[in-house]
Amino acid sequence: MSCLGGRARSWAYGRRLTDPTCFSTYEVFKEELRQAFEPPQNEFRSRAEFLDLQQGKHDVHAYAQRARYLVSNIVTNPIDEATKVVTFMKGLKDGPVKTYLFREYPSTLESAITLGMQEEFSLRQAKLHVNVPRPMPRPTVKPTGGPVPMDLSSATAAGSQQRRGPTNVRCFRCGNNGHYARECTAPVQAAKGRRDDTGYRHGQ
C-alpha cells in the first residue's frame, strides 16, 4: 500500500480505516485494486461502442470496417447475428442506402455490409453520369446580307431550258423552230438558202 499513489493510495487507506480486515491476503488486495482501477475490458468497450455505432460523415465502407473491427473484439459472449444486422442498419445515416437495406433486410452482418456498399457505389455512378456535361447544340447563324447559297440544280435546269429555248419560237435566219436568230449556228449559205426558199414558198 505504501507504494501506491494518488487515487489508488487514498482508496486503499480509506478501505483500511473503515474495515481493518478488508484485505485478508495480498491476493484479495490485488483483485479488489484491479477491479477498482483497471481500465474497462476491451471486449466490454467494443460491445458498448458497437451497439451505439453511427455512420456520421463517413462513407459506408469506413462505417462497415469499424463495425467489423468492434464485432471481432467481442469473443467471450458474441452478439447474435440479428442484433448485429439491426444495429448496423440503424446506425446508417438516413438516405437511399438505409432505405434499401430496410427493404431487403439481410440476414447477416456481412450481407448487410455488401448490399450497403453496392448500393452506395451504384448511387455514386448514377450521380457521376448525371453530372457529365452534355455538348451544347451549335447555334444557327442567320445570314446578315451576305451571299446566299444557291440551289445549283435549279440554276442548271433553268440554264439548260434557256439554252434550248422555247419550242414555239421560229428562227428567221434558218427557218427552224426552237431558237432565235441570234442563237442560230447554221452556216450562212444554208441559212440564206433556206430563207430564200421560205420566201419563194411564201410567194407561191
UniProtKB/TrEMBL annotation:
The keyword tRNA processing appears for this protein: no
InterPro entries: Retrotrans_gag_dom (IPR005162), RTL1-rel (IPR032567), Znf_CCHC (IPR001878), Znf_CCHC_sf (IPR036875)
Compositionally biased spans, kind Polar residues: 153-165
Annotated CCHC-type domain residues: 170-184
Alphabetized Pfam families for the sequence: Retrotrans_gag (PF03732), zf-CCHC (PF00098)
Keyword annotations from UniProtKB, A to Z: Metal-binding, Zinc, Zinc-finger
Region (Disordered), start-end ranges: 133-166
GO terms, molecular function: nucleic acid binding; zinc ion binding
Designated name of the protein: CCHC-type domain-containing protein
